[in-house]
Amino acid sequence: MTRPVRNLMLLLAISYLCISFTLSQAPVPYTPILNTFGYILNVRWSEDSQTLSFQEIYPPHFSVQGPDPFDDSTKWYNVTINTSAQHEVNKSSQPPFNPTLQQALARLPVAMDDDGERGMIILSPDQRYVVYAAQDFIEGEQHFPLAITEIATGWTGMTEEIFISSPSVLARIYQLNWSADSSAFVVDFNTGFGDDRKFHVTGYASDRDEIAQKLIVTRISELNFNGRTIYAGVGVTGISSDGNRLLLDVIFRQGEYNLMIWDLHDTSQSQVIVYGGEMANFISADFVNEDQEVLYIDPTGLWQYDLTTDALKLLDESINSSWVDYAWFSPNGRWMALLDREALFNVRSFLYILPVRQ
């Protein structure tokens, strides 16, 4: 990044800060647990749904060090859910790992941008694996391969099918969702130029190739469903606890937008669960309650689909895609963390923890 461009970005950022600080509250009728100019990533619920943890990273141009997971620009949060009072929020500049794990993460071959900004890392729910942009620069392609490392052993697999153009924006452009057992994950890559991609990645937890260090990568794009060609959109991808089923926002040739369950092992078991029509805008659909239910958000509100009865129920009209940019639902389906990100510069973010009304 050249000095004039960096100075211009800094000037624009400072101008935006001055404007934003005049705002006294978030533009929705709820109180956020966090109001930040940084980026929120590594969001995960505990298995018992009692704790939400996440990482806050400030943009590179606000920090000399860049988005390194261990520098002063990073804060780690641990929120204990309290049903009768305010949630207990604990903040620390140190990651919630033991010293051995911290040292292992610091040694990872994470790629850096041209101006020395270290790439972001994405941790698995069990903190056994970490995903990042590897240093192995692909000559002639101007990008880095996506890599996953098992922290305890150092085993690393990578794929050039999923390329990272700028390591420090990994968590901003690429949406990554893990299965609850950490055996698989899905990557949504929205370039903004029509080259949208969705991948399912597995093979690192078992039956992996110790020599070739290759991953099992499946691109989810054109799918055959009951003799019809359907297209998977980018941005909504829930994943089941075992990583074998996906929740996809799919488009039929007639321009219909629908929400469906796609079974990766047996496509005959795939099914459309919501017919959204031409105006659908599904946000953050995911499996909850031991994969027996699906929660999702669209323009009309927060919805619940029961896989055992095929019943569809509107839970809350106020929780809708007019202001919610992303949602993380607790495993038991009783809580949700909602992200509201301002459009201007895509910098200021509000994070809420709200109950799911049944």
Mean pLDDT: 77
Evaluate the radius of gyration.
20 Å
- Helix content range of the residues, please? under 10%
How big a fraction of the residues is strand? 35-45%
Number of contiguous helices: 3
Overall number of strands:
25
- SSE sequence, one letter per element: HEEEEEHEEEEHEEEEEEEEEEEEEEEE
**Distance, first to last CA:** 50 Å
Q: Structural class of the secondary elements?
A: mainly beta
User: Tell me about the biggest sheet?
Assistant: 5 strands, antiparallel
Extract low-pLDDT stretches: 1-26, 61-72
Shape: globular
Describe the strand arrangement of the main beta sheet, using strand numbers: 14-15-16-17-18
